[in-house]
Amino acid sequence: MTYLTAFGLSVAFPLYHSDNRSLKKTVLGRASGRFAKDDRQRLVVQALRDISFTMRSGDRLGLVGSNGSGKTTLLRTLSGIYQPASGSLSMEGRLTSLLDPGQGMNLDLTGWENIRLRGYFLGMGKADIARLEADVEDFSELGQFLDLPVRNYSSGMVVRLAFAMATAVHPEILIMDEWILAGDAGFMDKAKHRVEAMVRHADILVLASHQAGILAQWCSRLIWLDQGRVRAEGSPMEVLAQYLPPQQFEEIEKTKSLLATNPVF
């Protein structure tokens, strides 16, 4: 049974140059309770504070909050990139995290070499890697650029390669930041159905996004993070009603009503 459970997760980042008196005065004067000292008496910023939730197969969790609220930190902690200062994290299922366009890519290697590297990382055999290469080549439409080192790619080409590789394999637990929803209009029009298929086939989804319409459409539950804490949790429309300005929420309600007659999932 696929599951993901976070209990009391807290993450803190030391401010290594905090011995400077003016910095301390400035930080402590504006901290609003988010800064503290760790057991080594270092000044730290509390990026996440006491985050708990449980997800089972079929759950879709969306994260909302202003920049710096802790959304990306939580995604990185769930993905194993950050170690929590306290609390625990347990899961069952194959996890894929899509947090950064360049995640897992070696810029000195060619596109082809990066595709094969991804296949090896996923434990694929030769036949599966060959299918992965064909799928990424067809979807990314990068053609002969796949023969070049990735450092020679434009930012848009990097997104195309990263997107094609990331969405070629369907995970059981999908951790996704909103970079995957960005890109040039022509490519994203083509990519929309591929993203939706990936979301639909994942057992569990955790998505952070500023696009309220996507969260209302794709998620069954939202958490509103504010200064590293959970400020509200509930159904998408309940949380968005608290989080969004009234006029913007009314637009989401109208869109939601239209989608109800022709749902994506």
Automatic annotation (TrEMBL):
Keyword Cell division: no
The organism's place on the tree of life at top rank: Bacteria
Entry-linked Pfam families: ABC_tran (PF00005)
Classification via CDD domains: ABC_KpsT_Wzt (cd03220)
Recorded GO MF terms: ATP binding
Gene3D superfamilies for this protein: P-loop containing nucleotide triphosphate hydrolases (3.40.50.300)
Keywords: ATP-binding, Nucleotide-binding, Transport
InterPro entries cross-referenced by the UniProt entry: AAA+_ATPase, ABC_transporter-like_ATP-bd, ABC_transpr_TagH-like, Bact_Polysacc_Export_ATP-bd, P-loop_NTPase
Coiled-coil boundaries: none
Keyword S-adenosyl-L-methionine: no
Domain ABC transporter: 23-252
Family: Belongs to the ABC transporter superfamily.
Record-given protein name: ABC transporter ATP-binding protein
Source organism per UniProt: Acidiphilium iwatense
